[in-house]
Design brief:
By secondary structure, the chain is mainly α. It has ten helices and no strands. Helix 3 runs antiparallel to helix 4 and helix 5 packs antiparallel against helix 6.
């Protein structure tokens, strides 16, 4: 049995108390894979979708679905654009339920999508919307790990390196308020790696 399939069985066995956060399972699988190889997210996406069905009023369930769906979209090439629109929907539902969950993670991740996907007419990419969403996150929670990570990446892409450093330093030292060590470690190391390249 594939490791991801085993994770799915565990997740579905405990519908009210998931043994492992689906996004943490995804990042744990990323650590286990060789560099540059994305883990198969099919089973994890099914688990995240099942969680949304069981807990439709749970911001974390929709956040998980949005993140994992976006990861799946990356593996689909141009056909992944439709999947990214569904990820956007999932993230918007999470924001409606609790915009400040995990340091505004859904809003931060949606901002990152706006900053990285193609603009209209191909998709919903918008630098203006991405920047505005990150400003909303950091206005409420200045030490948000995801908010500072994605704002640091945005500023680095805009070649505002001094400002980027400040945000990436915060991201590298902050944590997520969940039992998700692989996910947190991945984000912190992403921030540290970006810092070392500046």
């Amino acid at each position: 049995m594939k490791p991801i399939a085993a994770v799915l069985l565990v997740l579905l066995s405990y519908p009210d108390a998931f043994a492992e956060h689906p996004v943490d399972a995804y990042y744990r699988a990323k650590w286990a894979e060789a560099d540059g190889i994305e883990p198969d997210v099919t089973d994890l996406l099914a688990a995240a979708e099942a969680r949304c069905g069981q807990k439709p009023d749970n911001a974390d369930a929709w956040l998980s679905a949005g993140i994992i769906r976006a990861a799946r979209a990356k593996t689909l090439g141009i056909s992944g654009l439709a999947e990214l629109k569904l990820a956007k929907r999932d993230l918007q539902l999470s924001i409606q339920l609790d915009p400040n969950w995990l340091g505004g993670y859904a809003r931060s991740f949606l901002a990152r999508l706006h900053l990285t996907v193609p603009p209209w007419p191909l998709s919903f990419g918008s630098n203006r919307k991405g920047a505005a969403l990150l400003a909303q996150v950091l206005d409420v929670e200045p030490t948000s790990l995801p908010g500072n990570l994605y704002e640091g990446l945005r500023l680095k892409d805009a070649e505002k390196f001094d400002e980027a450093v400040g945000h990436l330093r915060i991201a590298a030292s902050e944590s997520l308020d969940c039992e998700c060590p692989s996910w947190q470690r991945y984000l912190q190391q992403q921030a540290a790696s970006e810092l070392s390249s500046l």
